[in-house]
Specification:
The protein has nine helices and 14 strands. It is α/β, with parallel strands linked by helices and 261 residues long. α8 packs across α9 (223-236). The termini are close together.
């Protein structure tokens, strides 16, 4: 049995955790080192049991706590080669840290089998498919559109952590400037609730039963809006959330309940 959770998830910072026993890997570290360490302690996890940190991309809400963390702890970092180059040029990656490129190369990280896949964002970005003792989960956030590569890597998973970043009407009527609304809503921006719900429906028909809704915008979304959109799509298809499938929105500022896979 493996466990998935997020230490925090939203437009202000993202960090996911996949655990098998006491060993774990992290995906991103978008809030302070102190915030991340406090969350790990709440789960009774030691930094020494961290097998690696996977980075999806260079934006601050995914890496802002990484430089301080790596100044104090020696944990290998995995990301696309161009992301590693960018982080190194900023001084985020100390020279002594093992930085491993994951472009198309499956990795064995402790007891975790990890494969990266590209997502459609405005900087080089990837999601991750993780296998643990025969069970599989995938995480895909920061994607403006569900490309064939994303859909292929989400298919067949026991658990999928997927972006539900914004409600379309909240974004259009909200306070963001026009250029930012265009960026978020583009094919290289973020995934809205309706597109997320449609993908979840497809994945359920493929056999997946557990879903974590990630990276919700504080300004343009809410857990209630995201869940209502997903529930309406599933109920219209005759699927009963809570009975047939598990849908869990991830908290912006605290550790979310574990999901087993």
């Amino acid at each position: 049995m493996a466990l998935f959770t997020t230490l925090y998830s939203g437009s202000s910072g993202n960090c996911a955790l996949i655990r098998q026993g006491q060993q774990y890997i992290l995906i991103d570290m978008g809030k302070s080192c102190r915030t991340t360490l406090t969350a790990l302690r709440s789960l009774d996890l030691a930094v020494s049991d961290c097998q690696g940190i996977l980075i999806t991309h260079e934006h601050s809400d995914h890496v802002s706590g990484l430089d301080t963390f790596l100044r104090h702890y020696t944990v290998p970092v995995y990301a696309r080669a161009d992301t590693l180059d960018m982080l190194a040029s900023r001084g985020t990656l100390p020279p002594a840290i093992d930085a491993i490129a994951v472009d198309g190369k499956p990795q064995e990280i402790g007891g975790f089998g990890v494969t990266a896949f590209p997502t459609s964002h405005d900087v080089p970005c990837c999601g991750y498919r993780v296998q643990v003792e025969g069970s599989t989960m995938a995480l895909a956030t920061d994607l403006g559109v569900l490309t064939p590569a994303v859909q292929e890597n989400l298919a067949g998973c026991d658990l999928v952590a997927i972006e539900a970043n914004y409600d379309r009407f909240s974004l259009q009527g909200g306070p963001y400037p026009y250029y930012l609304k265009v960026r978020i809503g583009s094919d290289r921006g973020h995934l809205d609730n309706r597109a997320c719900a449609a993908e979840i429906l497809d994945l359920i028909q493929d056999g997946c039963k557990k879903f974590a809704l990630c990276h919700l915008s504080q300004t343009n979304n809410s857990p209630e809006l995201a869940m209502t959109t997903v529930y309406n799509v599933l109920l219209a298809a005759g699927i009963q959330p809570g009975r047939d499938v598990t849908i869990q929105p991830q908290s912006r500022s605290k550790v979310s309940p574990y999901l087993e896979f």
